[in-house]
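Structure in, sequence out. Go:
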């Protein structure tokens, strides 16, 4: 996973170098996540974060310049977790490979504690804020590259343009599926998951065994 160059105004003042300070930073991020879940992003500020983390405000400002920097670090941490799931699951780019529910990348991504907040509360930031948009673009490029490698290793002969386009579509399909099923009951989610898997597997079969669509070759 590549390192991301954080914009200066959102960068941490210093990187934690010891176990104790790494735990402190994680504690700040965890409490920020909890506050967003409970009170919404608009209500969260550095004083409130410090209060609920039970630390003095100076300890918070030792690492973060403002709440936006904390939000950015929280988003970056989530993307790193997502990338790890993608690498571990390898997006299972094989023909006919409809996975069991509990083994799927989608359920593992949905189960991450940050996922709902990132896809709901952070939606406006990822859509309209240039720094957060750039962060997701970086993340998407890493995921798409991993998916392309997996397809090629499993036999795809598509050219780079067509394969990149298919992988971006699969990325967006997965992202929108997870976002669109937030709040569903388990029964509703299982039904939608089955349809998602059918759609994703049709795409995998096309990329691995089919011809490149004509609009890429004309």
């Amino acid at each position: 996973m590549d390192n991301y160059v954080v914009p200066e105004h959102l960068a941490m003042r210093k990187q934690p170098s010891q176990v104790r300070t790494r735990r402190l930073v994680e504690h700040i991020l965890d409490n920020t996540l909890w506050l967003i879940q409970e009170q919404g992003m608009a209500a969260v500020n550095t004083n409130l974060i410090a209060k609920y983390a039970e630390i003095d405000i100076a300890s918070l400002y030792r690492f973060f310049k403002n709440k936006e920097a904390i939000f950015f670090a929280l988003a970056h941490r989530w993307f790193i977790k997502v990338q790890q799931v993608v690498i571990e699951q390898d997006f299972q780019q094989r023909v006919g490979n409809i996975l069991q529910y509990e083994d799927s990348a989608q359920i593992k991504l949905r189960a991450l504690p940050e996922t709902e907040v990132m896809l709901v509360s952070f939606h406006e930031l990822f859509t309209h804020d240039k720094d957060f948009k750039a962060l997701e673009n970086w993340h998407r490029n890493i995921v798409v590259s991993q998916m392309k490698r997996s397809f090629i290793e499993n036999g795809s002969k598509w050219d780079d343009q067509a394969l990149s386009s298919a992988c971006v579509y699969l990325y967006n399909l997965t992202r929108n599926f997870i976002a669109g099923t937030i709040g569903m009951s388990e029964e509703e989610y299982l039904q939608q998951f089955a349809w998602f898997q059918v759609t994703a597997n049709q795409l995998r079969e096309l990329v691995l065994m089919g011809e490149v669509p004509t609009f890429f070759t004309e």
